[in-house]
Amino acid sequence: MARLPSLPWIIDFHNLTVVRADVPVLSGFSLQVKPGEPLVILGPNGSGKSTLVKLITCELYPQTGIEGSRFRLFGLDRWGIEDLRRRLGIVALDMLQNLSHEVTPRQVTAIDMVLSGFFNSLGLWPHHHVNAQQRRRAKQILRFLEIHHLADRPLSAMSSGEQRRALIGRALVHDPEALILDEPSNSLDPGAVHEFHGILRKLLRSGKSLVLVTHQVADILPEIDRVILMKQGRIVADGPKRQVLSSASLSRLFGRRLRLIRLGANYELVRA
User: Fold this and answer.
1) How do residues 67-83 score in pLDDT, each as one tens digit?
2) Rounded to the nearest 5 degrees, what angle is found at the Cα of 52, between the Cα atoms of 76 and 29?
């Protein structure tokens, strides 16, 4: 029987260097992610996580001419940005901040936010023409995310957790193979975190590749086994969470004495 060809890595980075304002933020950086693989990238503020997200989304590019470097997404080293965005969904909180900082704030509803994923915008504009198929798709996504009853509610009148579900919906319109979530539970209260994690677990069960970039150990969901620890622009540990996570390793990562508590299949980090 002939062997089926293996699928290319979703992310295939090797020996990359990224410089911002003449300062190397990522140096000798390597990361590979398989199709369908969920993982958490955990690190303190300033560790280079946001730069990594911008590298994955091609908002930033690595230095060229470095021997042995490799910068590939879905097996390709050259991408049309529009094509990439159809295969890779991005959920970042600065999208909501950009919307709120507009000179003339708009009342963007939940369904408008989801539909805007078809146009690579934040919310709809008068020149956007939504067809019946796109509207059906948006309604399906709202039901999947359990916010269909909020379809016509402005984001400004929604909770932070509900707003984030709408952002996820925007990322799902093209049924991407992978989702990148940047600090997904930041600033949510405990109840909202619990509900939001429920949606993320639902996405995992649907077979999506999830890459959660965070500084919260609570974002390491039970279904996620691979954890990467990142500090000062480098990966300092990468492996199964039982091997990677410990009070000692996380104390070194965050630069203070911490104690890791396991609560069933979940984790909590407290001061030692």
Assistant:
1) 999 999 999 988 887 88
2) 75
Question: Which amino acid does the sequence have at 200?
Answer: L
Nearest residue to 107 (alpha-carbon basis) of 147, 158, 67, 149: 158
Closest CA to 84 of 73, 99, 94, 97: 73
The DSSP secondary-structure symbol of 81 reads H
* Residues sharing a CB contact under 8 Å with residue 263, sequence separation 6 or more, in sequence order: none
- For residue 14, give both structure tokens: 């090797």
Q: Residue 55, exposed/middle/buried by CB under 10 A (0-12, 13-18, 19+)?
A: buried
Token pair 């997904």: residue: 184
Describe the strand order of the beta sheet including 70-73 as a list of residue ranges: 23-33, 11-20, 70-73
Rounded to whole angstroms, the Cα distance separating 214 from 134 reads 32
CA distances from 61 to 2, 14, 119 (A): 38, 13, 24
Cβ–Cβ under 8 Å, residues 231 and 43: yes
- Give me the residue label for tokens 């390793």: 249
Q: Residue 227 belongs to what H/E stretch?
A: strand 226-231
pTM above 0.85, yes or no: yes
Q: Could you give the CA distance from residue 29 to residue 245 in angstroms, rounded to a whole number?
A: 21
Dihedral of CA 228/231/234/236: which sign? negative
pLDDT 10s digits, 195-210: 999 999 999 998 888 9
In DSSP terms, 39 is beta-bridged to 211, 226
